[in-house]
Amino acid sequence: MSGFSYRTGALYAEDVALTDIAAQVGTPTYVYSAAVLERNYRAYEQVFGGQNVGIHFALKANGNLAIVALLGSFGAGADIVSLGELRRALAAGIPPDRIVFSGVGKTNEELAAAVKAGIAQINVESEPELEALDGIARAAGRRQRIVLRINPDVDARTHEKISTGKRGDKFGIPYADAQALYRRAASLPGVEPVGLALHIGSQLIDLAPYKAAYRKVADLVQDLRRDGLTVQALDLGGGIGITYNDEKPPSLDEYATIVCDTVGNLGCRLAIEPGRSVVASAGVLLSRVIYCKNGAANDILIMDAGMNDLMRPSMYGAYHPIYPVQEPSPDAKMTAVDVVGPVCETGDTFARARLLPPLGTNDLVAFGAAGAYCSSMSSTYNARPLAAEVLVHGHSYDVVRARQSIEAMFADEHMPDWVTGTDPIAMTAGRKRA
Ligand code: LLP
Q1: Are residues 128 and 235 in the same domain?
Q2: Interval 3-53: pLDDT, tens
Q3: Which of 173, 308, 379, 423: CA 20 to 30 A from 53?
Q4: Which of 374-398 are b and which e, b meaning 16 or more Cβ less than 10 Å from the residue's Cβ?
Q5: Residue at 313 is within a domain
Q6: Which ligand 1 atom sits closest to the C-alpha of 81?
Q7: Residue 103 Cα, ligand 1 centroid: separation in angstroms?
Q8: What global pTM score does this model have?
């Protein structure tokens, strides 16, 4: 877990003790390492940068403005999927010409905002979206650059919920329909089709599905060109998988070789949209033990973080490593414990029978590989405020999202007078209507 290491018996993020962050910011708190973020991003840049490959960070993995701005300062673009993410990317200073817009269901409002912002590319996923975008761009007096996202019908061999490139998945344009739709796009004045996109899934450990999908896309490029159509750009989707437990993901070099072998000789400008592999290992979720209680099978560690803060174990059965913040002595007795949150459902379980040293009330732990799809997927379920987020940079750190206040959590809610009983006439009318 580089960037996070034990020093003099306690876990540090770079040069900052996690105990200090817990004392000053409280828990649960996401802690990110700027150094790890930079290293992960530069790894992509090193492998691909020289070859004129656009690297667009997928904001859905972590849209915190500080994280996005930091990546932007390294030269990253953004892959967005909503108006909210567009606004985040722009607010973080990502230039519009480095933003690509993916997603299966973009509303007219979202398309119009993207056109108006002048973003680099919209990845169109269906015929109705193509027609809608054409109208919107024409009304704005623009010709929007687009690529068509195809569904290559390849099994990514990842978790079923994050597999996106199989026939029958909701994403992309069926492979067999792509050529006709591309031709149609080329005839529309409001859009300029410049290429193709695909994304077959996330957390891919096996390179074979990439190879199969990229080969299919290469064949399609040739078919389109034979048809007299111009294809200059290929967007290859998300990044490679990472190690949460014992997965052995491919190296970026191996991935780059596949890219080179399959689509490298088409003369296309390439783009990738990595999220997880850039930010996951740069973050931990710092949490405190509320109680340890005896369970029927294992002892149960009840944390102050819940499934609302870190949903992946509950949603995907995902594994996250758990590190005691106080370094266990080499002879510490490891026992199997269940690690759970305080939320009122059994699904709020982070780990079952996890081997950990003795831990009790007030002890701190860090959930590892928590920089991606953790904070960004959190909610206020059980009326639990969103956790704080901290970015560590060498010896210092900044709170890059304050812990949400309870007041802020329900500040936008409203109780009509007829509900609170301060408007009896309306109450009676309301009852009569019912
Ligand atoms: N591009 C597109 C079009 C995507 O749909 C995704 C992820 C990415 C890029 C980024 O992929 P990455 O490099 O992160 O693998 N919530 C799930 C992950 C959902 C991923 C959805 N799409 C999880 O926690 O595992």
Answers
A1: yes
A2: 999 999 999 999 999 999 999 999 999 999 999 999 999 999 999 877 779
A3: 173
A4: bbbbbeeeeebbbbbbbbbbeeebe
A5: yes
A6: 3
A7: 11
A8: 0.96
> Looking at residue 430, what is its pLDDT?
56
Q: Is 233 exposed, middle or buried (0-12, 13-18, 19+ CB in 10 A)?
A: buried
- Per the CB < 8 A criterion, the answer to whether 289 and 302 are in contact is yes
| Span 285-300, pLDDT tens digits | 999 999 999 999 999 9
Residue whose CA is closest, atom 8 of ligand 1?
A: 238
Active site residue 344: yes
Catalytic residue among 260, 268, 292, 344: 344
Domain of residue 367, CATH code: 2.40.37.10
Give bridge partners of residue 101 from the DSSP assignment: 80, 122
Domain extent for 322: 4-31+282-409
What is the average per-residue pLDDT within 164-186?
91
Residue 33, both tokens: 């390492």
Q: Give one word for 390, left, alpha or beta, with left for phi > 0 and alpha for psi -120 to 50.
A: beta
Any domain includes 427: no
The answer to whether residues 51 and 186 belong to one domain is yes
C-alpha closest to that of 60 among 328, 281, 275: 275
Q: Are residues 109 and 8 in the same domain?
A: no
Considering the domain boundaries, does residue 419 fall inside one? no
Q: Are 339 and 258 in the same domain? A: no
Cα of 138 from ligand 1 centre, angstroms: 31
CA of residue 199 to ligand 1 center, whole Å = 9
| CA gap 198, 224 in Å, rounded | 16
Q: Are residues 181 and 70 in the same domain?
A: yes
Per cent of the chain over pLDDT 70 is 97
- If one residue of 202, 236, 242 were mutated to test the ligand 1 pocket, choosing by the most ligand atoms within 8 A of its CB, it would be 202
Torsion of CA 20, 23, 24, 28, to 10 degrees: 100
Tens of pLDDT along 254-266? 999 999 999 999 9
Residue 379 lies in a domain: yes
> How far does the centroid of ligand 1 lie from the alpha carbon of residue 172, in Å?
14
Q: How many domains does the chain have?
A: 2
145, 199 contact by CB (below 8 A): no
Spacing of C-alpha 169 from chain mean position: 19
Ligand 1 site residues, Cβ closer than 6 angstroms: 58, 60-61, 79, 102, 162, 199, 202-203, 237-239, 273-277, 312, 316, 373, 377
- Residue 140: CATH number of its domain: 3.20.20.10
